[in-house]
Design brief:
The structure is a single chain. The chain is of the alpha+beta class and about 425 residues long. The protein has twelve helices and 22 strands. The protein folds into two domains: about 270 residues, 3-Layer(aba) Sandwich (Alkaline Phosphatase, subunit A), CATH 3.40.720.10; about 140 residues, Domain 2, Phosphonoacetate Hydrolase (Gyrase A, domain 2). Helices cover about 30% and strands about 20% of the residues. It is globular, with a radius of gyration of 21 Å. The strands form eight sheets. The chain has a four-stranded mixed sheet.
């Protein structure tokens, strides 16, 4: 990555360890709050609301984070310290001064119209006029590519130019796609690194042109490391075979009955198993089932979940942790002919769990193959060796203090760095 190398040539590169579960929402919440899920409440890339018996995937707003975030802490230091939050996934409604996050309009006919939530509210109109709509179709799914990250970075440069914030947090998703679809060492994944560096080079030049090269401190961090996988687990099928998961037959196939004795919300390499009424006997039965399964490294229940800071009311009653070479698919049907209609579509909201197979959408059949073994990369498992540690880079060597970092250490450290820079 020549552009990043040039930027950090006189700076520093250190290792960064992401806490479990190393998936997008919790990883970002860890960085933004300095806390773990048992305090900030973000236990996965979605939630199960027990009282309503509803699954919420990828739509939550900022109030779901139960701890103050870096922009809130900076405001406590001084109201004059302004923050920009560009695409962190739970930023809608946050205390950041300037925000941009996709918020497509869901039309009565089931279609979506492009739109983004911005702060100031009218700012998305300026972005449309200058660089066009955010290309949502390239943010996830079969058309996911560099175009979404290009728009994010181009719009971020414009916002930094227009507002001059003292702190900017920008999420760039591009390295997620090929590494999961074809593997982290595949030619496509390596090409995505080159493509991202080119795009970041343009962004770096734009920021330097606006603020002056000597006036900008950069920190570039990997949220997690994607590892090669050659195995997949099906927790919901196991629960169904044990008589604990029930389905509701409908015209388009078998749907999950959320009133089942037990079912799993799976997310990459973590599974939250929710047990009806938190029945102790069922929890123990689930534990015994999962402890026998290939690809499952740990099974945690009750206070055992505190090992990873997951002893929170939103967490599953049983948490299953994958081996680093395995991941968990949400499938509950035992016959593909009985899969629900949405299983073969790109539908990140209706599926009670993350489905990377959407990256393998078949353009000829206009459907997603129901073959979870197609996935060659995943993330989320606890870091147990250096190959699972990410990196954090800066153009200012003093900022990283010549040491390795945990994701939960970054928030307080950045607050201090920014506060000191404003008072000097």
């Amino acid at each position: 990555m020549p552009n990043l190398q040039a930027l950090t040539a006189s700076g520093s590169q250190q290792r960064l360890t992401t806490s479990f579960p190393a998936v997008t929402w919790p990883a970002q919440a860890n960085m933004l709050t300095g806390k773990l899920p048992d305090q900030h409440g973000v236990i996965a890339n979605g939630f199960y609301w027990r009282e309503q018996k509803e699954v919420e995937m990828w739509t939550a707003w900022n109030e779901k984070i139960q701890s103050p975030q870096i922009w809130d802490l900076l405001h406590e230091v001084s109201a004059d310290i302004k923050s920009l939050a560009w695409f962190p996934m739970l930023s809608k409604g946050s205390g950041a001064d300037y925000i941009c996050m996709p918020k497509p309009v869901h039309n009565p006919d089931g279609s979506e119209s492009l739109w983004c939530y911005t702060q100031p509210q009218e700012y998305y109109g300026d972005l449309i006029e200058n660089i066009g709509h955010f290309p949502l179709q390239h943010f996830w799914g079969p058309l996911a590519n560099i175009k979404s990250s290009e728009w994010i970075l181009q719009s971020a440069v414009k916002a930094i130019t227009d507002f001059r914030p003292q702190f900017s947090y920008i999420y760039i998703p591009h390295l997620d796609y090929a590494a999961q679809k074809t593997g982290p060492n595949s030619p496509a994944a390596l090409q995505s690194v080159t493509d991202l560096d080119d795009t970041m080079g343009q962004m770096i030049d734009g920021v330097h042109e606006t603020l002056g090269k000597d006036n900008v401190v950069w920190m570039i961090a990997s949220e997690y490391v994607i590892s090669e996988v050659d195995h997949v687990s099906y927790p919901n099928r196991l629960l169904r075979e044990a008589g604990l998961l029930h389905v509701l037959p409908q015209e388009d196939g078998e749907h999950l009955d959320l009133d089942s004795p037990a079912w799993a919300l799976v997310d990459h390499q973590i599974g939250h198993i929710f047990v009806k009424d938190r029945c102790p006997e069922t929890i123990e039965q689930v534990r015994q089932i999962m402890e026998q399964q290939e690809g499952i490294a740990e099974v945690l229940a009750g206070d055992e979940r505190s090992k990873y800071g997951l002893n929170h009311e939103r967490s599953g009653d049983v948490i299953i942790v994958s081996d680093s070479n395995s991941w968990q698919a949400y499938y509950w049907w035992l016959d593909d002919a009985l899969a629900p209609g949405f299983a073969r579509t790109v539908d990140i909201h209706r599926k009670p769990g993350y489905d990377p197979v959407e990256l393998h959408f078949d353009m000829e059949t206009k459907s997603i193959p129901l073959d979870a073994t197609l996935i060659k990369g995943s993330h989320g498992a606890p870091v147990t060796d250096d190959a699972q540690r990410g990196v954090i880079l800066s153009n200012c060597s003093a900022v990283l203090e010549g040491r390795d970092w945990l994701d939960t250490e970054l928030c307080d450290h950045l607050v201090k760095v920014i506060s000191d820079s404003q008072s000097s």
